[in-house]
Amino acid sequence: MSHDDATDPAELLGQDYWDERYGSSQKLWSGNPNPQIVERLTGVTPGTALDVGCGEGADALWLAGQGWQVTGADVSQVALDRATAHAEKAGLAAGTTWERVDILTWQPPVQAYDLVTASFLHLPSEVRDDVHRGLAGAVRPGGRLLVVAHHLSDLHTAMRRPGMPDMFFTAEQVAAVLSAQEWDVLEAAAPERSAIDPEGEPTMVRDTVLLAVRR
Asked: How many whole angstroms separate alpha carbon 112 and alpha carbon 104?
């Protein structure tokens, strides 16, 4: 979505918007796993994982390929149907389940997962902290929470992020909702990475990255 296509944030969170967007193309995303997830989770002992905002399933399928038992959750049934087909084609159906959820009303099961991930799940500030608390609450002791997002500084690049600054956040803001008595924050940063802009030109962007372990 370009800056000129900026929409009401409430619309951006709904099933109709995302079903239409996924339905407009046979493949909306690259199909490659998020490099921030790969870098931070390669070699981690697998267990149960929840991938929120899983889209077409690239991250969930990478995790399943590493031995995780993954639940992918998303608001779009079109995306979930596509993820299911990708899992079957990759021989990973036994390691994945898919669930359609409304992130604004859904409560994930408490302390049920060894890993909870959310990549590029952008929410307005009035609901974001509550959603992140719910995701953190789904991590069992010893488990990890990994949140990755586009950084606010990307609004000043050629990447055409939605012109909605309130939908962006820092890793420190995510860390602030975690109890210091229950969590060890391993990383709260905005690492830079290379990307290709909509005109096909190379550019540099930053990701918000929060990685924490529950005690």
From this structure: 19
